[in-house]
Amino acid sequence: MKIALGSDHRGSTVASSLSTHLHASGHEIMVLSENSGAPTDYPDSAWRVSNEIASGRADRGILICGTGIGMCIAANKVRGIRAALAQDELSAQLSRSHNDANVLCLSADLLGQTLCKRIVDVWMRTAFEGGRHERRLGKIARIEAGEDPSAPERPRGAG
User: Which positions are annotated as active-site residues?
Assistant: First the structure.
């Protein structure tokens, strides 16, 4: 699987560790952040990674900053992105199985490298369940299109 990976300066050490870990697991990694040690702004990496996913050039993305919150907010501004902040294995699993999250956001400051690797492993191997969750993803897509998700759907071709 092709994974786009990005971080700000606070997440660069965890990002480097995850890049090595994912590569060793057989994934192709695209590192889309600067790891010079200089302060960087999380929206820049969030935008780069999210656009790789939205364009289809990458299958999934992983973003790491101090808390993961800023990355998650910024990534979800890109159409087609379903970014989820996971702080444990269960939230990672549910973000994939129920929400089909295509971007995982992590906290470098709160989780540590070992827990981040465990969370990523669960997230990577979890499939989307479909079923009742597909209806909900459709509603999310309607929100992205500026529509009321609770309004009755119009038949195709009705204008």
Answer: 65, 98
Predicted pLDDT at 127: 96
Q: Strands 60-65, 83-85: parallel, antiparallel or unpaired by DSSP?
A: unpaired
Asked whether residue 83 falls in the same domain as residue 134, the answer is: no
> Longest C-alpha distance within the chain, in Å?
54
pTM above 0.70, yes or no: yes
Owning domain of residue 153: 130-159
Q: Of 116, 115, 94, nearest to 105 (Cα)?
A: 116
- Sequence-ordered list of residues with C-beta below 8 angstroms from that of 137, at least 6 positions apart, any chain: 82, 99, 100
Q: CA–CA separation, 72 vs 16, rounded Å?
A: 19
Residues 98 and 43 in one domain: yes
Contact 84, 103 (CB under 8 A): yes
pLDDT of residue 155: 65
Q: How many structural domains is the chain composed of?
A: 2
